[in-house]
Amino acid sequence: MSVQGQPEKGAGASNGAELMDGIYRWQRHVYDATRKYYLLGRDRLIDDLAPPPGGTVLELGCGTARNLVLAARRHPQARFFGIDISAQMLESARGSIRRAGLDGRVSVAQGDATAFDTAALFGVERFDRVFFSYSLSMIPPWREALMAGAGALAPGGRLHLVDFGMMEAWPGLVRAPFRAWLSAFHVAPRADLEQALDACAQARGARASFRRLHGGYAVMGRIEA
After folding, report:
1. What is the number of domains present in the chain?
2. pLDDT in tens, the chain (225 residues)
3. Which of 118, 132, 201, 215 has the most CB atoms around its CB within 10 Å?
4. Which structural domain range is residue 128 located in?
């Protein structure tokens, strides 16, 4: 997941990669087993992707490829691609893809979610679906990543996202310590994500939708090009 955001993109991306590798060097081995209990809404997003036959799907901040593997099984008619800034996470991702026997349909590469060249990485320039799964909350220039993701959509494509919400319906005694725990892992829910999604859609002449899950614990959004 990209944490690039320095004035010079190359240097910022390098710093972000080092930070993410430091965080996930050991966590990647237990990441999928632990995150399933609190990264809610991911499987709903995977079901909602519904790419067209022969379609292409890109995940930005793909981590261990957990989502890509499940999505490839759920939608066998499509091809899947993922970008992550952490070499450590990509090592786990490639192992997961190989064990699932999906090497021919799922490809991953190292890249920055705010500035990537999928034509050079994968030979694919535009995608029928692009998605973020709990990655925008880890990308400091997350608005730029959102715009970059929307810019990678093919005509008629859709962008999907799921992430932490602001927990509006939760008591402060629960919300505050949970936010502090997230912060320890460089995770920051985005209070103006709905507004940013609307602005991104308007800039591209597209439609946006947004909904809150579980009292605002998580949020889901969509842009339809």
Report:
1. 1
2. 433 333 334 445 555 455 455 554 545 444 444 455 468 999 999 999 999 999 999 999 999 999 999 999 999 999 999 999 999 999 999 999 999 999 999 999 999 999 999 999 999 999 999 999 999 999 999 999 999 999 999 999 999 999 999 999 999 999 999 999 999 989 999 999 999 999 999 999 999 999 999 999 999 999 998
3. 132
4. 9-224
The answer to whether residue 2 sits within a structural domain is: no
Q: Is residue 70 part of a domain?
A: yes
CATH number of the domain residue 152 falls in: 3.40.50.150
Does 1 fall in a domain? no
Q: Which pTM does this prediction carry? A: 0.85
